[in-house]
Structures are given as structure tokens and as C-alpha cells.
């Protein structure tokens, strides 16, 4: 059987990794294109002209960002695998089980008042 806690955590982390990559990933792709095509990188501002910067700093920021995204995705996959292989849900004591066919309190069946 599975461990639903880890499955839900894994789905959440994987989803968060893809969302972060989708929303913020476009900002970090320009450094690679500029370095490969032109050899110089520029930082763009809304209220000022572009400023020439060192490409290695911008590529380092890109590597850090993608390491964060890969970390989120890896943590999600690890949690999913742990959840699928887990058996925590099966280790519930019989006296702690509730639902159809079980009661919360053993004394509740004996009392008729």
C-alpha cells in the first residue's frame, strides 16, 4: 500500500518546481543566448538604458536558479517514491481505527442509555 502523506507532499513539491520554472525560468534563459550569440551580456532596466555586465555572473545566477528547481523536482520525486513504497497507513492499531465497522470507543456499544 501507499503512504498518502508523502504522495501529497511529493505532488506538491513537483508542482511547485514546475510552477517556479514556468514563471521565473524565462528571466534566466537570456544569459545563455546572449553569451553564445554575442559574447557580451546586458542587464535591462525599465527606466534606464541597458548596461553591459559580465556574462559569468549572469550564468552563475542561472545555474543557482536551475539547481533550486532541480532540487524541488528531486525532492518531489523522492517523496513520491517514498509514499508509494511506504506502509505507514497499514500500521494503524485496531483500537485506533474508525469508520464503517469500527467504533471510536469500545464502551459505546455496551452502554444502552
Short account of what is shown:
By secondary structure, this protein is mainly alpha-helical.
Can you offer a commentary on this structure?
About 5% of the residues are buried. With about 110 residues, the chain is mostly helical. Helix 2 (about 30-35) packs across helix 3. The mean pLDDT is about 80. It has helices at about 5-25, 30-35, 55-85, 105-110, and strands at about 40-45, 50-55. The protein is built from 4 helices and 2 strands. It has one domain (about 5-110). A two-stranded antiparallel sheet has the order 1-2. The chain starts with a helix and ends with a helix.
User: Which residues form runs of ≥5 with pLDDT under 50?
Assistant: none
Strand order of the largest sheet: 1-2
The biggest sheet, with number of strands, parallel, antiparallel or mixed sense and barrel status, is: 2 strands, antiparallel
Mean pLDDT: 82
Q: How many helices in DSSP terms?
A: 4
Distance, first to last CA: 40 Å
Number of domains: 1
Percent strand equals 5-15%
Write the H/E string, N to C: HHEEHH
β-strand number = 2
Oligomer: single chain
Give the class from helix and strand content and strand pairing: mainly alpha
Helix content: 55-70%
CA-based gyration radius: 26 Å
Shape: rod-shaped
